[in-house]
Specification:
about 270 residues, alpha+beta, 4-stranded antiparallel sheet
């Protein structure tokens, strides 16, 4: 049985007047302006609204993206991903399917769990999930409650999560999850969300997304520096070696002499300069 694929949904029509909302919030501080978003779009025009947005991307302290709200639903994502997602607090509100009340007696048969791409023996992984399903059902048959039986369910079981978030917080969360050192499942789901976002939001807004080191300093400097000092430039997992972008974008150049020398030696060994 193949596992189910993640599905993401951006609810409603959040792109309608999105740029006009941001423009209005910004301009009202310094000048008299109409409060009609349709009129703003007509008077200002797409080009000026787009340029305004591009300028605000560079302003890390700008609050104006908070005037746009997004409502998301994610299906077939693991509880492990949801634990990471809900670490993002400011600007977010969540509602998560409760396995305390929802029975999942056939989760393994239906492929309702995540198998990491790095797992070597996927057949054994699936057998383990079936074994857990069997024990879960046995507990229910013995009269245990759903909320007690859920305690043996795997962290990678799927459930549904919905959340509402302002655009500023969403961009921050997405770009952190585009970091090459983040968990593979979340990276994949973030890419799906970006594709859904592009379908419903103004095209210019897609320019705000990407690996965080392309918009500012690396967010994993301590780990990258430690691994560069240990000369760990290659590995099986994305957490056990220096991020390629830390080298490619020159993040290491702000580090100490030993780290810089190790990186240069590695690049030269690979035929670079």
């Amino acid at each position: 049985m193949e596992t189910l694929r993640p599905r993401v949904f951006l609810q409603g029509d959040p792109g309608r007047h999105a740029l006009a909302r941001i423009y209005h919030a910004k301009k009202i501080q310094s000048e008299a302006i109409t409060h009609d978003y349709d009129e703003i779009e007509l008077r200002v025009g797409t080009n000026e609204l787009n340029e305004m947005f591009r300028t605000l991307i560079k302003d890390k302290l700008s609050p104006f993206f908070r005037w746009v709200t997004l409502d998301w639903t994610l299906e077939n994502v693991s509880r492990a991903l949801q634990q990471q997602l809900t670490r993002h607090k400011l600007g977010f509100e969540y509602s998560i399917q409760s396995l305390r009340v929802v029975s999942v007696e056939d989760f393994a048969e239906k492929g309702m769990y995540h198998i990491p791409a790095t797992v070597k023996d996927k057949a054994e992984y699936r057998e383990s999930m079936l074994a857990i399903q069997c024990e879960y059902n046995r507990m229910l048959q013995l009269g245990e409650t759903i909320q007690d039986a859920r305690g043996i369910l795997p962290l990678n079981i799927y459930s549904t999560v919905s959340f509402t978030v302002n655009l500023q917080a969403f961009i921050d969360m997405m770009n952190k999850r585009f970091c090459l050192k983040t968990q593979g499942e979340f990276q994949h789901v973030a890419l799906l969300m970006l594709e859904e976002f592009k379908k419903k939001m103004p095209a210019v807004m897609a320019e705000a997304f990407g690996e965080p080191c392309r918009f500012g300093p690396c967010i994993m400097i301590p780990e990258n520096e430690m691994q560069a000092r240990q000369k760990k430039f290659e590995g099986k997992a994305n957490t056990d070696h220096v991020c390629p972008l830390f080298i490619e974008l020159g993040g290491y150049k702000q580090s100490d002499e030993e780290i810089r020398a190790n990186v240069v030696d590695y690049v030269v060994s690979k035929g670079g300069k």
